[in-house]
Recover the amino acids of this structure.
């Protein structure tokens, strides 16, 4: 469902590559965690996947569609939550979500999903208010609802748990699991190692724009020669720039 092949991306002609020869395949039904230290290239990779950036080299495909050549068709397959919610704050929550449903041409008979998701995230009453009055957590929940309103095949989420209260974080994690169980795909970044360890079928660890490890946790443990190491410990060892990573 997600394919990156030899992808490069730099900011400016002389700057270092934010993404350097990245290749990755994420299959249907897979919950994939994308990890890395700050500045490793996680958000740049995600912006390439959702079509907000164009690669300097390589191919980016989502649901079999070339994100550069077929941007609108690809974006219809994606539910994207950015690392910071960017919303039209002069709108009420309800108007904003109806607007998003219009953009994705969601049929009227399926728009009840907005109310269902709002109820799950305990946002129903707040939808009458301007988004400018929302807390960060409320904005995050609104962004999540907006990303899911068209029932996309692929969830691409950049630090989606950040800012959520414990109940909403639990709900989102359950929704991610359920989506994969139904044959969808989830690709998400996080700094919370415990979340990735509990949720993910596989994780990929990126450093300085390059993938330095990718696989199920059991394989990463075997690589490190430790059958009981936590993902946090493996992550710290693999991203330690003073260590010799093979």
């Amino acid at each position: 469902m997600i394919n990156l092949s030899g992808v490069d991306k730099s900011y400016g002609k002389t700057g270092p590559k934010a993404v350097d020869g990245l290749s990755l395949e994420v299959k249907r039904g897979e919950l994939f965690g994308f990890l890395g230290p700050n500045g490793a290239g996680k958000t740049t990779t995600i912006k390439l996947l959702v079509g907000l950036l164009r690669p300097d080299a390589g191919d980016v495909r989502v649901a079999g569609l070339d994100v550069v050549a077929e941007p609108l068709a690809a974006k219809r397959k994606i539910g994207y939550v950015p690392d910071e919610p960017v919303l039209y704050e002069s709108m009420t929550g309800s108007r904003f979500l109806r607007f998003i449903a219009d953009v994705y041409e969601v049929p009227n008979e399926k728009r009840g999903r907005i109310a269902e998701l709002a109820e799950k995230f305990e946002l129903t009453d707040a939808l009458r208010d301007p988004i400018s009055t929302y807390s960060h957590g409320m904005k995050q929940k609104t962004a999540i609802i907006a990303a899911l309103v068209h029932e996309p095949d692929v969830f691409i989420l950049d630090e989606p748990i950040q800012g959520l209260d414990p109940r909403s974080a639990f709900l989102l994690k359950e929704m991610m699991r359920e989506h994969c169980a139904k044959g969808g795909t989830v690709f998400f970044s996080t700094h919370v190692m415990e979340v990735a360890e509990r949720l993910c079928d596989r994780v990929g660890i990126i450093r300085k724009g390059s993938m330095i490890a990718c696989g199920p946790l059991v394989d990463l443990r075997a690589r490190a020669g430790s059958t009981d190491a936590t993902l946090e410990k493996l992550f710290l060892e693999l991203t330690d720039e003073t260590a010799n990573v093979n």
